[in-house]
Amino acid sequence: MKEEEIIKDLEKYNQTRLINILNKVDKNTKKEIINEVSEINLKELERLYENIKNTVEVDVGELKPVKSINPDKLTKEEYNEFENAGIDVLKNNKFAVVIMSGGEGTRLGYNGPKGTFKIDVEPRPKYLFEIMADSIQRANKKYGITIPWYIMTSNKNNDEIVNFMEEHNYFGYPKEYIGFFKQGELPLITEDGQLVIDENYKIRKAADGNGSVFKSMRDRGVLEDMKEKGIEWVYIGQIDNVLLKMVDTLLLGVAIKEGSEIATRSVFKDFPRERMGTLCLKNEMVKVIEYSEIPEDMIEAKNENGEMLFGESNITCNLFSLKAIEKISLKDLPYHKAHKKYSYMDENCKMIEPVEPNAYKFEYFIFDSFEFFNQISIVRGKREEDFAPIKNKEGVQSPETAIKLYNDYWKKQKSEMI
Ligand code: UTP
Hints:
Strand order of the largest sheet: 6-5-2-10-14-11-19
Shape: globular
CATH architecture of one domain: Alpha-Beta Complex
Strand content: 15-25%
Bound molecules: uridine 5'-triphosphate
Structural class: alpha+beta
């Protein structure tokens, strides 16, 4: 597109601040900015702006509790039947894993991609990527296979992650079985719908959330690659759960036996007001409701055994059939917005440091994909076995809590093996 056309487009979408900046900068800077604008979908910008203007009332409607499988309540025969169905998929090389590592890890406050963060576990400190590599390697050894491992990065952290993995010799994982792919980005916008320009005259963008994984797999050729390899099932997990079990044969078997295209591990809330996304049925479809959106009378609701009705919680441990991923990758997931503070260039090319949140970042969430499916299998996991996330610098879900869970888990495994 020519420069005049791009400026016309900017006018059409009311990008007055940027137009004023363009009128003040030198020729080269102008050219660079125009180049960047040409890669932005301005029509989408309009949709983002609509999204912040219309504060949608959350319509939770009539929610019902989900049904889950509690492995502790299965007979040995039932358990084995599920497991064997899962193992069959592995042994036929129809299984792959994806680790999402495109997040910014702002709450942890570590200067680098989370996967390169080292935690002081026993018997020796390990990087999060190393913990993931070890976990898949254990399954490879057990089943005599090599599972293709894909790592989703962002524009911001891709090079750092790729170099880090190379420097550490992929933690012993066969290099030819590892694939990196970048997720998408969305521009930030200020409260009045204007693009945000930073001190280097660049348009500020941010990774578009973990729900970007489906589209990014399509756009970056990962789906094609998996199809060529004959993959039928894909586990998608997050880098910051140090007890993540990607090779979850029980979950896989349950999905197959129940005829579901998606299966998820949950954990049960410790107490009704625990801040976790709740798995519910809305119009008979599985949906994750943020803890802040659950209607008050449902929070404390109990069944006849005195068990919390809405205790089943989302821990982002998800398994998808490749067909499901293909289907979702063609859908538009909703945007979730976060109101944050971002410095920006005003129309006189002066940088402004806001004191209050002034702009919105937009993200897709992986769990919004559930609503495209009539049925999702849920297997209840345990915190001490499945869920040790590192989100915050200190306190809950911090390196300290994750290290303890990790050490306790492995101590127990070893004592059971003796
Ligand atoms: P979170 O939503 O917890 O975000 O990511 P985060 O980036 O780790 O941390 P904060 O919120 O900035 O403090 C959950 C998982 O999803 C991945 C993260 O890397 C993590 O594995 N993720 C998140 C992405 O891959 N891309 C994104 O755009 C966002």
